[in-house]
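Subject: sequence -> structure tokens, single chain

Hey, anyone have a minute? Need the predicted structure for the following. Not urgent.
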Amino acid sequence: MTKVGFISLGCSKNLVDTEVMLYNLHSAGFEITPNEEEAEIIVVNTCGFIESAKRESIENILDVAELKKWGKCRYIIATGCLVERYRDEMFNEMPEVSAILGVGSLCDIAEACEAVMRGEKYSSFRDKNTSKLGGDRIITTEPHTAYLKVSEGCDNRCTYCAIPLIRGGHRSRTVEDIVAEAKDLESMGVKEINLIAQDTTRYGLDIYGEYSLARLVREICKNTNIPWIRLLYCYPDKITDELIAELRDNPRLLKYMDIPIQHISDSVLKRMNRHGDGATIRDAVKRLREGVPDIVLRTTAMVGFPGENDEDFTELCEFVKEARFDRFGAFTFSAEEGTEAALMDAQIDEQTKQNRYDILMQTQLTVAEELSTEKVGSTITVLCDGYDTVAEIYYGRSYADAPDVDGKVYFKSRRRINPGAFVDVKITEAVDYDLVGEVAL
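Reply:
Had a minute. Here:
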């Protein structure tokens, strides 16, 4: 039986694609191995969102190519966003690669493996705007948590973003299809599902004629008993009163929302072609904070966008202090080929970008430390993710912590706690973005 290894790069949405390909290969009779040194075929599911992600993807492919010299690896298959974006250059620029699959060709992964084993070069680029959505998959996250992709592609057309070029237009899965997958995940023991898409709040607009995320959540709750449902990638201009009410009233929908703002300056947002202005963002934060007590808000912002001046940047820093986001990430502008922003005047030098990034993150660190310190002495519910044998301490996450991107809660316990169990933890200490405590007796 041929052994296949996988390297999945980039976002959680890409990870779901990897899981679909894993299932397809397993069903076709291939053996999946977590050990790259044992694999005869290694699939690299690439990211191509920004320059640093592209570099990481290329470096991973070259690292795998080294295994062909001394390991068991004989073939490299590249898939995903980088491949979709540079399909015409892949074979010429990376002769180490034996097969390439675009984002619409996940279903061809077994055929690609069979072709390379016959010594053939293989490529497949099905129409990404008509390819099948969803599909059976092998979960690679912790057994008790999973991502659930509700739609594919994006219609927002932000001037800095290549995602519509790579992933195509926005397409929602049906409520029935998503609910069926949620039921499957529950049967596997999943306790937490994280609803994801390029723009989760746009869900349903294309097939139902209206924003349908709140309806989708209600249907998942009606048909499963999964205790934690989390919303990621929600855009501030599409947060409806219905969704806020669902967050407030549904005990299984976590009081947590990820709302990427990118900036607060009206002039920068306009050049970014973001939907809504600074007032839209401020209003969304206000409505969520007033409408949903104890809600945790995560966001991301971009610095160094073409034309961003000192006044724009100062306004962003002041807003971060004012809004007191519970979770925050930032990145510097990357001029991506094929995007409008890459051709704009007033490009900003890399050193200025980095300086602004450092200042912004230091501003947020002060906010985060204050918020974490307020948690000391409280008791919170934690979903246990595992046990660190070196530090001899359990770790997990509260409703305020999304997997992979947020902090953790580390805790001691006199009794054994299994991964996937919910425990009440009394917080005794705050360390940067993490909390430390002990199981409450």
